[in-house]
Amino acid sequence: MTWPSIQAMKRNEPTFDEIVDSIHELNGHETNKIPWLMSLLDSPDGAIRLAALNALVHRFSIANLAEKLLVMLDRETDEDVLLVLLSALSMQHRGSRNEKLIHRFQAALNRIGRCLDGTREAFDDAKLRVMLGYDTKQFVKMSSTDRLAQLADVNAKLGPK
Questions:
Q1: Entry pTM
Q2: Do residues 86 and 123 make contact, with C-beta atoms less than 8 angstroms apart?
Q3: If exposure means fewest CB atoms within 10 Å of the residue's CB, which of 35, 94, 95, 112 is most exposed?
Q4: What is the pLDDT confidence band of residue 5, given thresholds at 50, 70 and 90?
Q5: 99-112 helix and 144-158 helix, angle to the nearest 10 degrees
Q6: Separation in Å, CA 124 to CA 2, 38, 83, 114, 115
Q7: 57 or 1: which leads in pLDDT
Q8: Helix/strand/coil (H, E, C) string of the chain?
């Protein structure tokens, strides 16, 4: 068991582990916890933002979540959180052909700098979702050659990065 810090005990504040455990225990029916989760999206700790974001995206259906995700996209510095943002926003904007959103994705990646290969692939998937309306099933069935050709077409339409 992880013990809370002395400072946390004095302030009667939950520890990191307690916060993350509380998030993981949510099942999607506790809609009264949504404001708390939304507030955690502003946490200075990337792991807490990631846990809260995953819970909100995968366990709850929230009408105004896209607005908050767009704000996060423009300032996020944690690559793991950015991956979830790319996925969630591209699913919400699937098939919209929203070039401005793709450019915001690119700006977020540029802000982080050197990204892992998986992050670049997630960005490519996000472009295909937004610009061509692809879903996960289509990605799985697509050959790597076809995927590269589709990306080349989308990138040509989007212009220089």
A1: 0.82
A2: yes
A3: 35
A4: very low
A5: 100
A6: 39, 27, 11, 16, 13
A7: 57
A8: CCCCCHHHHHHCCCCHHHHHHHHHHCCCCCHHHHHHHHHHCCCCCHHHHHHHHHHHHHHCCCCCHHHHHHHHHCCCCCHHHHHHHHHHHHHHCCCCCCHHHHHHHHHHHHHHCCCCHHHHHHHHHHHHHHHHCCCHHHHHHCCHHHHHHHHHHHHHHHCCC
Find out whether 101 and 130 touch, Cβ atoms under 8 Å: yes
Furthest-apart CA pair in the chain: how many Å?
59
Among the candidates 62, 78, 106, a domain finishes at 62
Averaged pLDDT, 59-77: 89
CA distance 74 to 50: 16
Query: Domain of 159?
Result: 64-161
37 and 89 together in one domain = no
Angle between helices 16-25 and 46-59 (to 10 degrees): 10
Of 62, 91, 110, which residue sits at a domain end?
Answer: 62
Residue 105, number of CB atoms within 10 A of its CB: 21
Q: Identify the burial level of 6 via C-beta atoms within 10 angstroms of its C-beta, where 0-12 means exposed, 13-18 middle and 19 or more buried.
A: exposed
Residue 150 and residue 142 in contact, taking contact as beta carbons nearer than 8 Å: yes
